[in-house]
Amino acid sequence: MNGTFKTRVSNHETDRDSRKADYRIMQSFEICLFEVSKLFRISRSGFRISQAVSFVLFLLAFNPSPADAHLVNTGFGTFYDGVVHLFITPSDILVAIGLGLLAGLCGAAASRGVIVALPAAWLAGEMVGSIYPTAITLPWVTTLSFGIVGVLVALNATLPRTVMLILTCTAGLLHGFVNGSTMAAAGTNRLGMLGAALAVFIVITLITALVVSLRAQWSRIVVRVAGSWIAAVGLLMLGWLVKGQG
């Protein structure tokens, strides 16, 4: 009886420490966001909007493992399952958005190459990953990839077209490989992988077209702030990965 009581107390203390750690991480994320808003001279109302967006991103990043390991069943067929898979996998959707923002900042010429290279590399990576259906997730690498892209956007990095294409192809092959591996392990076929690649194409095309069309200086600052949010989510997810290994 005494041993059971001690076990319950120990479990309660562990849960309490875990909640405190999550709170400290979220608090650090809010402080980081506030400093970014000061750096880019965001107004109070703009900061409130950024808080709302950050909360959405926080929820998106809160539990990355299930989305990486399982393929959602939409009921509309394998193709649409693959399409939805992109939007429920935080690392995938964030790297696609981040590359779209970065390509848009680099100009129309770079964007034209990126909107073709990313889905093509993604699909190629999926085909290779499907050969190894072992649910390889590589969370550290995929998190670092979109985090680095977010930093580049925040820094307003204007990359040469060749460098932009190399970065895009590398990210596409990496995330596509993880997609192909997890999808094959979940029992999906290559039609689902084609759906995921098409979803990547749609996202990257819409984002780059939007950013390239921006002319006002404040609008480009908003793009850079969005990049800083992506980088902050990357840091947040890295913190949870470190905590998970502790």
**Beta-strand percentage range:** under 5%
Question: How many structural domains?
Answer: 1
Shape: globular
User: What summary fits the major beta sheet?
Assistant: none
Could you tell me how far the N terminus lies from the C terminus, measured between alpha carbons in angstroms?
30 Å
Helix content: over 70%
What are the secondary-structure elements, in order, as H or E?
Answer: HHHHHHHHHH
Judged by helices, strands and strand pairing, the structural class is mainly alpha
- List segments where confidence is low: pLDDT < 50 over at least 5 consecutive residues: 35-51, 58-69
- Average the pLDDT over all residues and give the rounded result: 76
- Radius of gyration, in Å, reads 20 Å
